[in-house]
Amino acid sequence: VKLWHKLINKPNQNLHFVFVSEHFKDESLGDLGLSLSKDRYSIIHNYIDENIFKYQEKSENLRTKILTIRPYHSRTYANDMAVKAVQILSTKPFFKDLEFCFVGDGELFDDTTEPLKKFNNVKIEKRFLTQEEIKSYHDNYGIFLTPTRMDSQGVSRDEAMSSGLVAITTNVAAIPEFVDNSCAIVVEPENPKALADAIEYLYHNPDAFLKLSKAGNNRVKSQSGFNQTILK
Q1: Pfam families, alphabetically (predicted)?
Q2: How many whole angstroms separate alpha carbon 53 and alpha carbon 32?
């Protein structure tokens, strides 16, 4: 802490700070009880490589295929909310038309996904994926279910949106800096019913699904593409 106070309180023309989001900047400086003038820092998002996560136009049929790829070592990732959303949807008559895939690993994985094992239309895969494997999953699904309790950006969500998936996420932390309801579906936090309602909305509105798919790709490309990140 003393080091950061020394660095920030004694400006040096060769020292410029970079944060991935305004939220992360505010959190970092707030924890230290410090502030920076705007000329001493930049906001540069994590780069989303569109050469790897290349946009693939989605068919409306893929709105019934829901993917979640997350770590399971912390409740921060809100995987329990995604599981509860599936449980809520299981009471709907169209549930049989949906297909879910939960991929990830961590000490919370088994307990979190246990309630899903009774559903025939839910795949559970306990493992980590390479970037190439992630892209392969992206190409075979249409919705990326990614609630969260804290995010400084949400790289996995942006990668999915770049690939053309429609993201369903929660309005917390830095999320509003990267997505809104013009390019994804953003719901209130700690509300699995809202997540379930979002999936139901896309199921009944294929045109909205297709529109959000393209808009999501455009948002990522315009905000976290090569020119907006690496070139800075």
Answers
A1: Glyco_trans_1_4
A2: 36
Q: Are strands 143-145 and 65-71 parallel, antiparallel or unpaired?
A: parallel
* Both structure tokens of 142: 């249409």
Q: Specify whether the CB–CB gap between 165 and 143 falls below 8 A.
A: yes
At 211-228, the pLDDT tens digits run 999 999 999 999 999 999
Query: How far is Cα 162 from Cα 52, in angstroms, rounded to an integer?
Result: 9
- Chain-centroid distance of CA 91 in Å reads 26
Whether 156 has a pLDDT exceeding 90, the answer reads yes
Within the chain, all domains assigned CATH 3.40.50.2000 are found at 60-223
Q: Give the CATH superfamily of 60-223.
A: Glycogen Phosphorylase B; (3.40.50.2000)
pTM for this structure? 0.95
